[in-house]
Amino acid sequence: MLPNRCSSALCALACYSALLGLRCPVIAQAQSMPDSKLNLRAALVLTPEFCATKIKKGTWMSNQEQFDVGKAVCSELGPALKEVLTGVTSVDAGASAGDAQVVLTPRFIDVTATQAKIAFSNRELVLLVEWTAKDRSGKTLWLETVQGSAKHHIGNAFTYRKNLKLIVTDSSKDLAAQSASKISASAQLRDLARVSDATLAGKN
């Protein structure tokens, strides 16, 4: 038996030489280690207006479409932010932030959708959201615009609604992932987390 199982064509070719007494090389699998979460309790402000956002594109005379982006985005943001922050609580107003150390509020800036001429042509949905992060005193710590997007076929009469839902869902997931990445990388929020860690260490 060969001492190692190869997972690439190059390795497989090399392994062939093992029949002649040579050792098959080991191909290391790259693994990305996630960064540690920011030690912050955050209030994620998802207002009813934000979550109910529906964008209409086109006119009633030329393929008017409605994208229910608010509901989709609101369902994705909480889980995504919990991957990068130690505590995330969703609230419907900033005044309900409680003991949160940082208040994160998104708002839609723009939603654009390209058109496709035939059923199997790809079209793109792009979501732009502005994030504001404030501390307990109401001071703005961080302001950032984040983009999420997805591409799908527009579909035909039978698949249009399914594809419309897919492009909204996938662009919302991408927006949530990009938002979490930006929040995790924010120098201002990292500074706030360090202050929180130092304060906790001082009490212990």
What's the total helix number? Answer: 5
Q: Average pLDDT across residues?
A: 81
| Measured distance between first and last alpha carbons | 57 Å
Low-confidence stretches: 1-34
Question: How helical, in percent, are the residues?
Answer: 25-40%
Q: Given the helix and strand composition, which structural class is it?
A: alpha/beta
CATH secondary-structure class of the largest domain: Alpha Beta
Architecture of the largest domain, CATH level 2? Answer: 2-Layer Sandwich
Strand order of the largest sheet: 4-1-5-6-7
Give the H and E element order.
Answer: HEHEEHEEEEHH
CATH topology value of the largest domain: Double Stranded RNA Binding Domain
Overall, the morphology is elongated
Domains, number: 2
Q: Quaternary arrangement of the chains shown?
A: single chain
Question: What is the strand content?
Answer: 25-35%
**Beta-strand segment tally:** 7
Task: Tell me about the largest β-sheet.
Answer: 5 strands, mixed
Radius of gyration based on Cα positions: 23 Å
CATH superfamily (homologous) name of the largest domain: Lipoprotein like domain
